Amino acid sequence: MAFFPKISFQCEVEEYLSKVFRNSELITALGTQEAESRYQSLLSHLSHPPAFTTVRVNTHLASVKHVKNLLFEEIQQQFKGLCLPVLEHPEIQDILLIPVIGPRRDIKKHASEVIVGAHCGYAVLRGAHVYVPGIISTSKCLKAGDLVSVYSDIEGKCKRGAKEFGGNKVFLGNGISELSRNEIFSSNGRLNGMGIRMIEPVYLSPSFDNVLPSHSLLQNLPSVVVSHVLNPQPGERILDMCAAPGGKTTHLATLMHDQGEVIAMDKIANKVKKIKQNAELHQLNCIKAICYDGTKALSVEKGEDEQEGPPFLPESFDRILLDAPCSGMGQRPNMAYSWTLREVTSYQPLQRKLFTVAVKLLKPGGVLVYSTCTITLSENEEQVAWALETFPCLQLQPQEPHIGGEGMRGAGLSLVQLKLLQRFDPSAVTLQGMDINSLQDSREDDLISLANKDCIGFFIAKFIKLNSK
């Protein structure tokens, strides 16, 4: 049973999605009732966090076993002796999985309240403490050391500095205030430190603030899978077209044993700076981060010498990852999606521009992986259908590992083609909470199966370029 309300959309977006998940192909295959049930289940899942915290180990610097032992000790310390398992994944051998306990329904609320912004609230549900920039409102007499109940303003209607808020808010758990109200809303400039230390979160998940920063990285499970699907090899030249903040970039470099070249592009300078920081933190030298617009990355004229780029000469890369800008509807948790239909549908043309450039930059025999963290047909299966029709040189390829479901019907792709795609659909499992007792009674295989399914919404397609035409 859902603990939080289903994710809400603007009316026009809700109508759009309703048609997507009730398309004629899907209805014919599943029946109206089953299609509707899956859609409603998806909406419920999106407002809840995934059932596991996924930690990718930086195997360039440490072994999985070593980091597993360190994390186990860290979790015991954080949870005062509570013994949570740290699981190794049998197919994705550089990640660790930590079950998330919750939702905990028996937490008593305090009279003193703190309201945080939606994004801060989502971070809290995945194990973070509350930092001052995320705080919007507190009770008027808040002092450092007070026990407080923390709520998320999911619709963004609370005014900064308000002393009370009666709008739509969601309970996140209890914490201890590190600062007084006056310090939080000081006119001397915003503080950046911790504001509330969470001690009774609704979802119990370890905090990774300054925990093994060079040896591990929090990544959603499908985001780790996509780099394995690309399967970069030592010595190759790889392009990560839309790379920020660099989690997949550093993963690609690690899989290549830091041998070869990974060009990581993003058109926003601050994001490129973050990629460089991540590369340095993980001690990876083969990454070259560049501030550049991926839609303009193809050189229209051949120079006398091979260009370091960008723009790059045609057929310059052995493999390309296009983790495309998208509407982001697969991210979890998300209780209120505020974008307009115009914003949602603006991504398909941009994705096609980037895809076209990627195909031209790829060497014959090279591999192109396209991925998004959204749930729409237009940004996923429809893009695959368009790509196969537009570029006869491309052929869909099987994916390894393949732990998500097959592609969704509705874009005219064959059953064979759909089976080659990988769509992570959190509604594939029943929404259920996890407590210590149920965790102890569960088989490890069942927990791994749950982790594979109860994750964010994500999509992966893998192509090979057969020739230059």
TrEMBL record:
Active-site residues, Swiss-Prot/TrEMBL: C373
Molecular function (Gene Ontology), one example: RNA methyltransferase activity
GO biological process per UniProt: RNA methylation
Keyword hit for Methyltransferase: yes
Pfam families attached to this UniProt entry: Methyltr_RsmB-F
Chain ranges of the SAM-dependent MTase RsmB/NOP-type domain: 141-466
Positions that bind S-adenosyl-L-methionine: C242, A243, A244, P245, G246, G247, K248, D266, D293, D323
Keyword Transferase in record: yes
TM spans (from-to): none
Keywords: Methyltransferase, RNA-binding, S-adenosyl-L-methionine, Transferase
Entry-linked InterPro entries: MeTrfase_RsmB-F_NOP2_cat, MeTrfase_RsmB-F_NOP2_dom, PUA-like_sf, PUA_sf, RCMT, RsmB/NOL1/NOP2-like_CS, SAM-dependent_MTases_sf
Family in the record: Belongs to the class I-like SAM-binding methyltransferase superfamily. RsmB/NOP family.
Stated name of the protein: NOP2 methyltransferase
The organism of origin for this protein: Dromaius novaehollandiae
Underlying gene: Nop2_0
